[in-house]
Amino acid sequence: MSEKAHYTGHRQRLRERFAKTGADGLADYELIELLLFSALPRGDVKPLAKSLLARFGSVGAVLSAEPRALAEVEGAGKAVVHALKLAEAVSLKTLRDQHQGRPVIATWKALLDYCKATLAHQMNEQFHVLFLDNNNTLIADETQQKGTVNHVPLYPREVIKRALELSASAIILVHNHPSGDATPSPADIEMTVEVCEAGMKLGISVHDHLIISRNGHSSFKSMGLL
User: Fold this and answer.
1) Cβ(146)–Cβ(125) below 8 Å
2) DSSP state, 137?
C-alpha cells in the first residue's frame, strides 16, 4: 500500500508541476513520464521514461521512433507504443493545422516547426513536397519517396505531374538528412535544378528546398541556390 501511495503521490505532483510551469518546468524524462501515465496506470514509469530517452536521445526522437524500435525497449508494450505514437500524431496534426489553408509566408515558422517535427528524427531519408496555389496557400503536403539512411530518390517528372493534378502553381521541396548535417549534397543540388527546369516549362515554380536534420536546417533560397 505504501508503494502504491508513493507512486500515486509522484504522479500527482508531476501533473501539478506541469499545470503550473508547463513543459519548461519539467525534465525531458518527466514529460515522457506524463505520456506514460495513461498507458501504465500503476507502478513507477520513471525507469522506462529514462530508458526511452537514453535509447533515442530526445523527446522528439522518442515520439518519432518506429513502433518496432520502441517495443525493443524493456517495458514498452503495446499500450506504451500506442500512447507515444498517439502523442506524435496529435502534435503533428496541431502543427499542420497552423498552416493548412493559409499562405505559407504568413506561417513560415509554424511550417518549419512542422517540417522539423515530421522529419528531424527520422532514421531514413524521406522526401516531402508542399504544393501551393497562386496565393502561396498550402494545398497539400505529401510524402513522395522514402529511402535509406543516406539516400532518397526523387523523380522530377512525377513531382511536376502531381503538381498539375493538384492545380498547384508552386512547390516547396523538403527532405531530411539523418546524419544530422543539413548541408546540401551535390546530388541534392543537381536534383533541385532538375525539378526547377521541369517545372519552369509548365509554369510551376520551386519556392525553396528545405533540408531538415536533428541539428538544424538549411534553405536553398537563403543560401542563394535558388
Assistant:
1) yes
2) B
| Segments making up each domain of the chain, as ranges | 2-94, 103-219
In what side-by-side order are the strands of the sheet with 138-146? 138-146, 126-132, 170-176, 205-213, 216-219
pLDDT tens digits, residue range 153-212?
Answer: 678 888 999 999 999 999 999 999 988 889 999 989 999 999 999 999 899 999 999 999
Q: Which CATH architecture has domain 103-219?
A: 3-Layer(aba) Sandwich (3.40)
Other CB atoms within a 10 A radius of the CB of residue 131 amount to 22
Nearest-angstrom CA–CA distance, 46 and 65: 19
Contacts of residue 24, defined as CB under 8 A and 6 or more positions apart, other chains included, come to none
Residue 123, SS3 per DSSP = coil
> Which is nearest to 59 in space by CA: 36, 39, 42, 77?
36
Highest mean pLDDT among 4-8, 77-81, 144-148: 77-81
Residues, the chain? 226
CA 128 – CA 190 distance, rounded (Å): 17
**CA distance from start to end of the chain:** 65
